[in-house]
Design goal:
binds magnesium ion; 15 strands; 5-stranded parallel sheet; globular; 11 helices; alpha/beta
């Protein structure tokens, strides 16, 4: 395998609605991931779900037949904890959230406290109650900074949707009159950090996602190539509502399996030492301002 060939591009891949829906694998997701691994193409799974740790995500994927390592997972909880550690090293946080967020904060030198925190940090979870909201409101009015791990208003479940982090944060914002700073997709704080983890440039990075407001908007803002899959929350009919478009729209990640095979065989057959840029393969326009 030619290392130059495999390092010319890589993928940031959303999980919910792209790899699986609820606990059901989307057809072809395992094949695509295996293909990336076999060919040594760099990738990270990029999720706005702050509930799970990296290890939890690896275990969930493994149950569904997708084998990856912890290093392949990049969550908004990790992005939030790293951001806070950079803003205020060794700080304190009052947390409305679960294990993924608590673990990430601890790993980044943060203490989780019940009194006088530097930050109130809100993530996904089922532990949310009005007592916590009241505590958080008091802290924010007392000077604690409000941080959202992500702006998603709802999360898909097997039964439909449940309220997401964005909905919980809206309650705190309304009660306090303070606007949260949000770290997850589409924030460049998370998307740029994930791109840097891939070790690739903007023009070498392809974002695959099912949500226009997060995956595609973030990708467009960062100048990444963007691929919208219709296997999640977005339909073709929805697209007219947005002032921005993805570079490529496919029914599901299964369609990318064939595209990738085609690209690799073209490359080997015609120009083994001079790989074509990813934009040729996805028939994408030149990125501006790389
Ligand atoms: Mg999604």
């Amino acid at each position: 395998m030619n290392a130059d060939v495999t390092q010319e591009f890589g993928f940031l891949i959303d999980m919910d609605g792209v790899l699986y829906r609820g606990s059901e694998l989307i057809r072809g997701a395992d094949v695509f991931v295996n293909q990336l691994r076999r060919r040594g193409i760099p990738f990270r799974f990029l999720t706005n779900n702050s509930q799970r740790t990296r290890r939890d995500v690896v275990a969930k994927l493994s149950r569904m037949g997708v084998q990856v390592e912890e290093e392949h997972v990049f969550t908004c909880a990790m992005a939030t904890a790293r951001f806070l550690a950079a803003q205020k090293p060794g700080g304190t946080a009052y947390v409305i959230g679960e294990g993924g967020l608590l673990t990430a904060l601890h790993q980044n030198g943060y203490a989780v406290v019940d009194h006088d925190p530097d930050f109130v940090v809100v993530g996904e979870g089922r532990t949310f109650n009005l007592e916590m909201v009241e505590t958080a409101v008091r802290m924010i009015l007392g000077g604690a900074k409000l941080i959202a791990t992500n702006p998603d208003p709802s999360c898909p479940t097997a039964n439909g949707v449940r309220p997401g982090c964005g909905a919980m944060v809206a309650m705190l914002e309304t009660a306090t009159g303070v606007t949260a700073f949000s770290v997850g997709k589409p924030s460049p704080v998370m998307m740029r950090a994930a791109r840097k983890e891939l070790g690739l440039s903007t023009d070498q990075t392809v974002m695959i996602g099912d949500t226009m407001e997060t995956d595609i908007l973030g990708g467009v803002q960062l100048g990444f190539h963007t691929v919208l899959v219709l296997s999640g929350g977005t339909t073709r009919a929805d697209l007219g509502r947005y002032a921005y478009s993805p570079n490529l729209i496919v029914d599901s990640i299964a369609d990318l399996v064939d595209l990738l095979d085609q690209k690799m065989s073209d490359q080997t057959a015609t120009e083994p030492t001079k790989p074509r840029p990813v934009r040729d393969w996805l028939r994408l326009p030149e990125c501006v301002g790389v």
